[in-house]
Specification:
The protein is mainly β. The chain has four domains: 70 residues, no CATH class; 215 residues; 154 residues; 90 residues, no CATH class. It has five helices and 42 strands. The strands form four sheets. The protein has a 32-stranded mixed sheet that branches. Strand 34 and strand 35 form a beta hairpin. The longest helix is centred in the first third of the chain and has 25 residues. It starts with a helix and ends with a strand.
């Protein structure tokens, strides 16, 4: 028994000694701030708790371990604090690193830029930017070889104030940019296109100072908040709120961008680049849940400035950009497609895309000096409203979908809902090449006049194809629903000087060609399209010269010829056997139709006029 008691006592003594040693080893020496930590020699303790950066409880708390070596790289007062005898090294696993540990202040007056740079340079992984308003006036430069990743505490939807929030009473993480503006982008990410990791920014808001909303309002032109040059990393841009921002992203020679839950009011461009458009955005970039709306201010002159100058996505050379769930309001265009010296926007894919109160919601256009746009883009569901801007803004015309980009663009739309347009609903008007717009199903409401008592669009049709060289094409898989029709009809051609030209419209019943003719006459070849080939002749006045219309080659069910002006010397010629058709009249009254049908009676096959 005595032996047993001696053994138990020895064991208890051993446990007590081990616990006391562990307690001694884990007991932290506490210092109140960074100055006190720097004044604490390394020999004082193995681990030290800094209770704050400037003062205990200010958010800059961190735990450090002693190192007898000098700080290398040099001390940054964050992860490395120089002290007598060596260096205090932050234990980044003990407390999640945050920007306050380097000395940043959420007081809307201390420049946070240098502290963001220090935190990035530490290269220790994700950095937290706690809730508060941070003033930023110094550019932070990131490299593709070291991936930055900063995240905040989200944001509450500060709305319709027409100014940035104050440092008190605001919820979430806000970065504030003031005038005079920085000469560079606040965040520059550059380097070779090397994929070395994943980074980005998430869950924070950005705001810039601009003039208060008033008559004649215009924003202050800041540099884009993010400038991405030659970035090959997979980067996430998630939960970002751009509250009253001039430009958000400048993108050049970059790939693998992932956007999610992007919200706010961006006055000039959400996505742009050094030359005014995104250029060389390569594969695997995508985005979802964009909500671009007048959160900062819906004042008339603020929205007016945007509708004259603002573009949400301004895109040139890029590949396979995929976007789902987009809503934009109050811009000249939500999607502008251009061509740069390096190429065109190719294989763009959009899921649900809604653009309201826009002059040209979807717009493929030319860039001087670079030729046809040659864009290829697909929409699953496109809902657009080219609201009447004629009287309020002096905008000369609006269309839901417009392609005037010098040729060879292809826009494919599965479902189109055009809620209103002052002029045509869909227009293919390239003047130097052939553009194509393919639509599976569509509905149109208040097209041509947007419900106005007088129609500024004149006789502009819902579908308008025009071209002075070659043919543009609008192709419909099924004929559209049309709820309100004013002005120029479904398929027609404007007779003004700028639009007297050529084009093709295809639907499930055949093809329709509009052709700009001279009053002096000439010769027109109809398209070899079936089952019905329709020719619409438009001119500036009565066609008095000899005009010859060459029918399709053969095997069509029907050919229809109509005109917006009177034709006084018409010849209809058949390609079978040559010569004119004696059964056809030599005159045609405007807005009447000449119908020619193909009859097949064995060897007696021929075109014959049947009605006019």
């Amino acid at each position: 028994m005595r032996l047993w008691l001696i053994i138990v006592a020895a064991l208890l003594s051993s446990v007590w000694w081990a616990n006391s040693q562990a307690s001694a080893q884990t007991t932290l020496l506490h210092v109140s701030n960074n100055s006190a930590l720097a004044a604490t020699p390394i020999s004082t303790a193995t681990r030290v708790m800094r209770d704050g950066f400037y003062a205990a409880g200010d958010g800059g708390a961190a735990i450090y371990t002693a190192s007898a070596s000098a700080c290398s790289p040099s001390a940054d007062n964050g992860v490395r604090v120089s002290a007598s005898g060596g260096c205090w090294l932050m234990d980044t696993k003990a407390i999640q690193p945050n920007i306050l540990q380097w000395g940043a202040k959420a007081d809307d007056s201390t420049d946070v830029g240098p502290y963001i740079q220090l935190a990035y340079n530490a290269n220790i992984g994700p950095i937290h930017i706690p809730a508060g308003v941070y003033y930023d006036n110094t550019q932070s430069v990131f490299s593709s070889n070291t991936v930055p990743y900063f995240y905040g505490d989200g944001w509450a939807e500060y709305s319709q104030a027409g100014h940035c929030p104050s440092a008190t009473g605001i919820v979430g993480t806000w970065i504030h940019f003031k005038t005079p503006v920085m000469p560079q982008s606040p965040f520059l990410w550059t380097g070779g296109i090397v994929a070395v990791g994943r980074g980005g920014f998430r869950d924070m808001a950005f705001c810039q100072d601009h003039a208060a909303p008033a008559a004649g309002w215009a924003p202050t032109a800041y540099k884009p908040i993010f400038q991405l040059n030659s970035v090959g990393n997979e980067t996430d841009w998630e939960g970002l709120y751009f509250y009253g921002v001039y430009d958000a992203f400048s993108i050049y020679q970059t790939a693998r961008l992932h956007f999610n839950n992007i919200k706010g009011q961006v006055f000039h461009r959400l996505l742009t680049g050094p030359n005014g458009y995104v250029e060389d955005l390569f594969d695997l970039s995508q985005g979802t849940d964009f909500h671009i709306w007048p959160f900062w201010s819906g004042y008339t002159d603020v929205v007016k400035w945007q509708e004259i100058n603002g573009i949400v996505f301004d895109l040139a050379r890029m590949d396979t950009f995929q976007v789902d769930n987009f809503f934009g309001y109050g811009y000249k265009s939500c999607l502008k497609l251009e061509r740069s010296a390096n190429g065109s926007p190719n294989q763009l894919q959009f899921g649900s895309f809604v653009c309201d109160a826009s002059q040209f919601p979807v717009w493929a256009t030319s860039t001087p000096g670079f030729g046809g746009t040659q864009a290829t883009v697909q929409f699953a569901n496109l809902v657009v409203d080219a609201i009447d801007l004629e009287s309020s803004l002096g905008v000369p015309e609006t269309e839901c979908v417009r392609s005037d980009g010098g040729g060879f663009s292809v826009i494919r739309i599965s479902n189109l809902n055009c809620l209103g347009a002052t002029y045509s609903g869909v227009i293919a008007a390239s003047t130097t090449g052939a553009d194509e717009i393919d639509i599976n199903a569509a509905s149109f409401n208040n097209t041509n006049c947007h419900g106005l008592t007088s129609c500024p669009g004149g006789n502009s049709p819902i579908f308008f194809t025009a071209n002075s060289v070659g043919y543009n094409l609008i192709r419909m898989a099924q004929f559209p629903q049309i709820f309100a029709l004013n002005g120029g009809g479904v398929i027609n051609s404007d007779t003004t000087a700028s639009y007297t030209s050529n084009g093709i419209f295809e639907y499930n019943g055949g093809y329709y060609i509009s052709y700009g003719a001279s009053t002096a006459g000439g010769s027109i070849q109809m398209g070899n399209y079936g089952p019905v080939s329709t020719l619409y002749i438009n001119a500036s006045g009565t066609i008095t010269g000899a005009l010859t219309v060459l029918l399709p080659i053969a095997d069509q069910n029907e050919a229809i010829i109509t005109s917006n002006v009177d034709i006084s010397n018409l010849t209809v010629s058949s390609p079978i056997g040559g010569g004119f058709l004696s059964s056809c009249p030599h005159t045609l009254t405007h807005q009447h139709m000449l119908i020619v049908r193909w009859f097949n009676f064995g060897a007696a096959t021929a075109w014959r006029c049947v009605a006019s």
